[in-house]
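Consider the following assembly input.
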Amino acid sequence: MDASTRRGMTVVGPAAQRAAAWIAGCMRSFLPPGHIDALKLADRLEHRQLRQGQIIFTQGTHPDGVWMVRSGELELVAGRGQDRVVVGTLQPCGIAGDVPLLLGKPAVCTVRARTDVQSSFLSAAGFLATLDASPALTRAWLTALAHRHLRAQEAQVRTLHGSAESRAAWLLLREARDSAVTCSQGTLAAMLGMRRQTMNRVIKDFERQGLLRVGYCRLELLAVDRLRQRAQDRA
Amino acid sequence: MDASTRRGMTVVGPAAQRAAAWIAGCMRSFLPPGHIDALKLADRLEHRQLRQGQIIFTQGTHPDGVWMVRSGELELVAGRGQDRVVVGTLQPCGIAGDVPLLLGKPAVCTVRARTDVQSSFLSAAGFLATLDASPALTRAWLTALAHRHLRAQEAQVRTLHGSAESRAAWLLLREARDSAVTCSQGTLAAMLGMRRQTMNRVIKDFERQGLLRVGYCRLELLAVDRLRQRAQDRA
DNA sequence: AAGGCATGGTCAGGGAGGTGACACATTGGA
DNA sequence: TCCAATGTGTCACCTCCCTGACCATGCCTT
């Protein structure tokens, strides 16, 4: 924890300023540009590094704060073993833990670091205090949550119907960063409620058709346009 | 439209007061009790009656306001024909249209009145102005949206896995009002991404086992506890 | 270098659910 | 009162995906 974050609200250290700049970047579409309130939030943040595989909170428990992803990826998991379902992933600027805190209910998902993750942590008290202190941030948070909700609804529409091929193509396009998807085929399957074997069959078909290249825990998308077409067939 | 809603913010008519009481009831878990801001919102509301089957906005268009359900049921639909998917339903206190307005994006679902519906309508401008004017209401709205988001995530977890039986049992429990589900079997099937025939098979099985009674566009749940058990088998 | 563990690749068999079809019931409006 | 639209009930067929199994490969730790 940076000493400058201890000095209170009036004096703001360089770490907090960097954090504020990052937050403003994250919420650039949700906050009036250059709004000073980002600093109020940045001041309460605490940097946290997560190792790959680390679990930050578990299904059925109350998170003790909010995590905001700065780099790396988190995944939201429900169930275990054969019934493991990956409800979603959080890439940079993603937020975890706020919904259970707002509702005072235990989390419905376990949140796990898929890669090493740099994150900003905001304690439960700090989170609620920030919302009370800054209407502009509350409004921005509302918009950010609306964004996540829309994404979840889209996912539901896509996972309810369509062949394994079309759903897989859609998922790959959604999960890609720089035309590459970096997670195991088993995890991809768990995002669509299908089995590893089925996902592997689809992926190898795609590879044979030159749509992508397969590596270890890595898929490189070679023909995004043709994949997009596959995603729309029999939607 | 009530004349009293035209008199401005200072004088509040009885209709607005009734609306405020209703809103306070809806958001009782989200707003500090007795908070005066409910009146600010109630003052902008306009009563709207919807006939069964009426569509209030369509997938791909921009809603011109926010609808809040006072009685009856709305359904959120995506796709058409064979690919029709029912993403969710809104029962009393449900809200439609706010997410697209907040994001400035077109709606991903068509919203349709499943029954005759009494609703309160809030224009787009009124909605945004209300959020700007009342931090407490913004905060309440954030919590209400968190609630919907949690519900959507639960739905996704349940629809990704499990047999037709367990998913159907879960859905019936969720959609029931007073131990009865009032919609067609086709619509129930569309909520789970399955076919009418499959849903019918499951329902008739349930009926043979005494779990429910089948009517025209109506299912009466007779053994909620045993249904709940069915919902957990092979989750 | 070696071992353990996670992941990738593949196959045969079986079953759950989709497909298309048809008859009948119910509802609500002309 | 009749008719069209919508919903219910059921069937035979067939496809797609799950199941369980097995081995190969890549990665990390010791």
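Residues 184-186, 196-197, 200-201, 203-204, 214, 216-217 of chain A lie near DNA strand C (CB under 10 Å from a C1'). Ask yourself how this observation constrains the way the partners meet.
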